[in-house]
Amino acid sequence: MKIRYLVPLLLLAAACTSRDPQNSAFCGMTMMASGTRLLDQLGNLHAILSQPPEEMMTGRVPTRVLGYPAGYSLPAAGDSGRVALGYEGEGLPQVPGFGLALVDDSSEVFRGVVVFDPEPPRGYPQIGTISNASVTIPLIGLRIHWSSVNSDQCPLFPPDSATTNAEVSADAEVSADAEVEGA
Q: What is the DSSP string of 56-103?
C-alpha cells in the first residue's frame, strides 16, 4: 500500500472514532436507518394509535429529535384525552414537523418519542402535541417492532436520556416495598 493512501485512511479512521459512541459514524447511520424504518411503518394503518399510551403520563418521556442528542419531554393532560409534551432538549423543528410516540408491538410498552422535521402525514389521528417555548407540532402514535428500530450499540433513547416508564414503575415498587418493610 502506498503511503499516500495510508494517510487519508488514518485520518478517516480518526474522524470516525469518538469517545462518545453516540457521536460515531456508525450511530449516525443507525439513526438514519431507524428514522427510515419508522417513516415506512407509518404506511401500516393497523400500527397507528388513536389514543396516547397511558404510560406517557407517568414520568419524563424519552425524546429524540433525529440528528440531536436524546432529551426528554414532560407530559401534561391535553384537550379531549390528548397529551401535551413540553420538550426539554435541542433541535425541535419549526413547523412543519411531527413527533411519533413509539409503542413496542410485542410487549405494548411505551418506549419514547422520536421527532421528525418533514411535514406530518395527513389524515392520521393526532394523539397530542409536543412543544417548546417557540413551536408546537403534532404527535402521532405508532406501534413498532422495537428491535427493528433500536440498536443496543446506539439506542434511540440511551438509559441516561430520561427516566423511562419501566424505571419509574420499578422505583415506585421498590419504594413501596421499603415502606412496608420499615413499618
A: GGSSPEEEEETTS--EEEEEEE-GGG-EEEEEESS-PPPSS-EEEEEE
* Phi/psi at 73 (5° precision): -125, 150
Predicted TM-score (pTM) of this structure: 0.76
- Cα 16 to Cα 116: distance, rounded to the nearest angstrom: 25
pLDDT digits (tens, 9 = 90+) for 110-129: 999 999 998 999 999 999 99
Whole-number Å distance between alpha carbons of 162 and 11: 35
Confidence of residue 23 (pLDDT cuts 50, 70, 90): low
* Burial class for 11, CB neighbours closer than 10 Å (0-12, 13-18, 19+): exposed
Site of grid cell 493512501: 5
**What is the Cα–Cα distance from 178 to 150, expressed in whole angstroms?**
34
Q: What percent of the chain has pLDDT over 70?
A: 74
Distance CA 81, CA 133 (A): 22
- Domain range summary for the chain, segments of one domain joined by +: 20-182
Phi, psi (deg, nearest 5) at residue 23: -100, 10
